[in-house]
Amino acid sequence: MIEVTCTAPINIAVIKYWGKRDEKLILPINESTSATLDQSQLCAKTTVAASPDFTSDQMWLNGQEQSMDSARLQNVLKEIRRRARKRKSDGSGEDRVNWHVHICSENNFPTAAGLASSAAGLACLVFSLSKLFEVEGDISDVARQGSGSACRSIYGGFVEWTMGTEVDGSDSRALQIASETHWPQMRVLILVVSAKKKHVGSTTGMQTSVKTSQLLAHRAEKIVPERMVEMRRAIKDKDFQTFAEITMKDSNQLHACCLDTYPPVTYMTDTSRDIVRLVHAVNNHYGENKVAYTFDAGPNACLYLMEDMVPTMLGLVQNFFPPEQDHGEAFLTGLPSKVSTPSQELLNAIPLEPSVGAVQYIIHTKVGPGPQVLIDQSESLLDSTGQPKSSTQ
Amino acid sequence: MIEVTCTAPINIAVIKYWGKRDEKLILPINESTSATLDQSQLCAKTTVAASPDFTSDQMWLNGQEQSMDSARLQNVLKEIRRRARKRKSDGSGEDRVNWHVHICSENNFPTAAGLASSAAGLACLVFSLSKLFEVEGDISDVARQGSGSACRSIYGGFVEWTMGTEVDGSDSRALQIASETHWPQMRVLILVVSAKKKHVGSTTGMQTSVKTSQLLAHRAEKIVPERMVEMRRAIKDKDFQTFAEITMKDSNQLHACCLDTYPPVTYMTDTSRDIVRLVHAVNNHYGENKVAYTFDAGPNACLYLMEDMVPTMLGLVQNFFPPEQDHGEAFLTGLPSKVSTPSQELLNAIPLEPSVGAVQYIIHTKVGPGPQVLIDQSESLLDSTGQPKSSTQ
């Protein structure tokens, strides 16, 4: 049995991907840009093993066996094996490529939180398989076929996903535009908003948007290309004013297109909108953009901000979205930080009433590197027979 | 002293007006279509009087004296007087036009409910002044200068507001496309949603949208012109399927453009969105559009539906948005109707949990005629000296 265990990060788009021009190959209708988040706080972890003794491909996710029937999963496996065979055309190790695989995955964060778990999970699977079968070169296009935005989780730092022009999708790939060390002051606060499960999954949501929203087509064709250029420059120049403005505008435009979808798709809740108001009020108070919000296909807010603003924002979030009295878990997780008590002047500038329990908890993190191979064998999620360890859940 | 007392209706757009190309003349960036609502349930009422004894123009709204300084109000008064003089060029009654006016207005519905009170109010003022000074011909362009959508309240039934092409705005007018008797089965339910005051007024909101939303420009230029044609045909053919679909899509697109505004403008709340879900679930259950929602610059839903669906929808609203136990006032006002208890099958088709108190009350009304002159002198809001009657509030 050969095996490898890896972790892969989630990524949070600042220019959003919404809509496919090819459902099978997962080719987007517009380019997108994201930051990859540090894996100490949020990551997917996967062990893949191959053995001549395995009688079938098998997969476990968070302790539960999963069907391997998914077309996307099959495409990913097939493509990795094809590349491995091509590379091993001298014959060495060719037989290993034909062994069945056991895949065991878990997330270190609640899947239900609505974070982009499938992106991290698929990136981790593709990265792990590429290591197991010694595939080299860019594998972001393979990850893309597993789950569109997974391609961006193949790289650390700031990453663009190019649309590509080839019919086979071979040039629709992720590209690092700046590494995780480029803008070291950048911090990320994820405000996990209390909510029931989301109403429409992002795959279905974007399909309906592509079919019905006339605004989405205009966005993809006319607006995003300009924003990509501006955003690239803002990241390279560490220009937070522009970075924040485009990030907020693009998040709003994604959700505008969801609302223009028929029937409309809504992910943001009253609490999400209160967070939007909070951020604009803070920026207005300081006379410059100090914080940027962005929302994916769920009510959680992701805030980008500089390190020196973290204590202030934490204080404001605690003030306006205080945890319930009997809140069992830590309200703040991730990177440690001071929490500043907001000044009365700042509080007066914010047109909100406190909403107890509206934010469940805060994850404090930063921009981080791409997927990692774990050297320590004890990290494996599979036992020596290739079965999930009992402690994986 | 000469005086006249009139009422004027509110109107609810089914293709929305959002954005001015000329702030002073109030010229819109796109055409719009609305239905005028019956005045038995909702109207503005205005008494205007003129007398050589009045020492200044004065105005009272809902019992409170108002400043006459508003540029819009002055424009309206000036234009009505100009037309009156032009008409009286033979000299008869010319002097009356120069008398000061006393204006006393009230609404028969709560202004805070976020209904289009300014449209009804300005339409009523302009209509009343035109009667007082015997101005004839179309006055919708004068009402437009008072408050854009007021021009549509000058006519009953189904009304379009044309953009016009003249620089002076003289051809940006309202036009009745079908009278109030054309589609007699049409009913309207206004669900007044419990909410604090709205965050951004519609005048400011649309200014910011015009300045910052790239989607709004596309909507006005490319999307609305097609919808106007389809909507006109749907109304003429009494095609509720199309009427409902365009109405819902256009409401969603207006709010999408508000969200694409920077900073974003939001009027719909979680309750508004629950009503959207309710309507789509109902239509889905019946396999055709039975109800259409539309939202203006506030969280209240306006539902268009056929008379035979009213008892069912009332039953559903009472089920999913039941009033608080200690709800003092009537939950249903306006036209009387049976309330049907929804079948279990229908209830099962609706993915909502009941939200107690989320809807404050329901106004049941229908499409109605344009402004009316009240013949009964006891209806006057002014006493014989031209002062507000004490009972006006």
TrEMBL record, chains A, B:
- Known EC number(s)? 4.1.1.33
Keywords, ordered alphabetically? ATP-binding, Cholesterol biosynthesis, Cholesterol metabolism, Lipid biosynthesis, Lipid metabolism, Lyase, Nucleotide-binding, Steroid biosynthesis, Steroid metabolism, Sterol biosynthesis, Sterol metabolism
Q: Which domain of life is it from?
A: Eukaryota
Any Pfam family from its record, for instance, is: MVD-like_N
The record's catalysed reaction(s) read:
(R)-5-diphosphomevalonate + ATP = isopentenyl diphosphate + ADP + phosphate + CO2
This protein's GO cellular component annotations are:
cytosol
Biological process (GO), any one: cholesterol biosynthetic process
Domain Mvd1 C-terminal: start-end pairs: 188-374
According to UniProt, the name of this protein is Diphosphomevalonate decarboxylase
Q: Which organism is it from?
A: Ridgeia piscesae
